[in-house]
């Protein structure tokens, strides 16, 4: 079922969802299941599965020389989506990236998803590789998320690459895209960033999931501005609970988000990691309750592979 259909069927009730990351190569998928199982009691209608960029690794050769190779350390997004669908009878949502994929490789991924009965995808540009100062599109790939949305939308209309003849069946993906309440760090202004979001919507996006934020007013302002420029599709807030004191530095550095000073002060007063974790839970609970009171369609949690704090939040909210 499409995300938009889940939202419609909820008839105004706020739904619970979360995002997971694939395990690293060589790790057992059971660890992933162990973190998903405790959250199933809250009846998530869908689970997002991230896709990681490729990265360079160095292999030690004879004589102490290092050989540089490129690989994906967290493959398996489509396979995990298939396993979630049939293990939990739930709608998985794979993330599809511009970075690291040609348009043809993207088409292959989408065809696989279609054959597996996956109804939803999230279309993202993706981050720059670790050695890059800025995002560089793959040769033969999509440059922007709006182009990726357009490619998926074309497939929904029976238009494939290479002008294939004899198309008898169209895909029917529900397309999610990312939104940034505090703007994408590469955008010169929030207004210009929202114009980019409007381009994705005009290209065929069906719903928006936001980057994490810690000040709900930023989300409400983002919603108001988005509606004013004609973005009328569902906008789902993304929540990430603080769980370690290092998040005070890591999250602003990586995700370019601002942390409210009152949250920073509470974390700084903590004596150990358990207290930090509890502060993060309580902050996310209050965020969630306020967002639900405002009528958001879904509250989406970034679990980063761990479920215990998400469960503690959901127990108080859902």
Q: How would you characterize the overall build of this protein?
A:
- The structure is a single chain.
- By secondary structure, the chain is an alpha/beta fold.
- The protein has one domain (3-317): TIM Barrel (Alpha-Beta Barrel), CATH 3.20.20.
- 40% of the residues lie in helices and 18% in strands.
- The chain is built from eleven helices and ten strands.
- The protein has helices at residues 3-10, 30-36, 77-88, 103-115, 145-156, 190-203, 216-228, 247-255, 261-268, 273-293, 308-317; strands at 15-20, 46-49, 55-60, 66-71, 91-97, 120-124, 174-179, 207-212, 235-239, 298-302.
- It has an eight-stranded parallel β-barrel, surrounded by six helices.
- Helix 5 packs parallel to helix 6, helix 9 (261-268) runs antiparallel to helix 10 and helix 10 (273-293) packs parallel to helix 11.
- The longest helix has 21 residues, at 273-293.
- It starts with a helix and ends with a helix.
- 36% of the residues are buried.
Count of all domains: 1
Query: What's the CATH topology name?
Result: TIM Barrel
Inertia-based shape: globular
Secondary structure tally, helices: 11
Fraction of helical residues:
25-40%
> What's the CATH first level?
Alpha Beta
Mean pLDDT figure: 93
- Order of strands, main sheet, comes to 1-2-5-6-7-8-9-10
CATH second-level architecture: Alpha-Beta Barrel
Number of strands: 10
Q: What is the N-to-C succession of helices and strands? A: HEHEEEHEHEHEHEHEHHHEH
Features:
TIM Barrel; 8-stranded parallel barrel; 11 helices; 10 strands; alpha/beta; 318 residues
């Amino acid at each position: 079922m499409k995300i938009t259909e889940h939202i419609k069927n909820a008839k105004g009730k706020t739904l619970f969802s979360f995002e997971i990351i694939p395990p690293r190569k060589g790790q057992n998928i059971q660890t992933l299941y162990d973190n998903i199982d405790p959250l199933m009691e809250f009846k998530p209608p869908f689970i997002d599965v991230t896709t990681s960029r490729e990265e360079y690794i160095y292999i030690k050769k004879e004589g102490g020389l290092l050989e540089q190779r490129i690989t994906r350390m967290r493959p398996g997004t489509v396979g995990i989506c298939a396993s979630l669908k049939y293990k939990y009878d739930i709608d998985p949502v794979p993330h599809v990236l511009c970075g690291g994929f040609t348009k043809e490789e993207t088409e292959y991924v989408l065809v696989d998803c279609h054959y597996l009965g996956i109804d939803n995808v999230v279309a993202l540009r993706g981050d720059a590789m670790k050695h890059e100062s800025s995002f560089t599109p793959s040769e033969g790939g999509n440059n922007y998320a709006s182009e990726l949305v357009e490619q998926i939308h074309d497939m929904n209309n029976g238009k494939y690459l290479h002008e294939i003849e004899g198309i008898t069946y169209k895909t029917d993906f529900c397309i999610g895209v990312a939104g940034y309440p505090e703007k994408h760090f590469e955008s010169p202004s929030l207004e210009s960033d929202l114009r980019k979001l409007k381009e994705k919507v005009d290209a065929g996006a069906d719903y928006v999931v936001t980057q994490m934020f810690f000040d709900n007013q930023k989300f409400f302002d983002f919603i108001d501005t988005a509606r004013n420029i004609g973005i009328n599709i569902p906008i789902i807030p993304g929540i990430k609970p603080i769980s370690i004191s290092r998040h005070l530095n890591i999250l602003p550095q990586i995700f370019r988000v601002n942390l409210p000073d009152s949250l920073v002060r509470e974390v700084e007063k903590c004596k150990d990691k358990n207290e930090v974790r509890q502060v993060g839970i309580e902050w996310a609970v209050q965020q969630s309750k306020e967002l639900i009171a405002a009528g958001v369609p879904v509250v989406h949690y970034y679990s980063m592979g761990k479920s215990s704090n998400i469960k503690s939040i959901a127990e108080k909210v859902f």
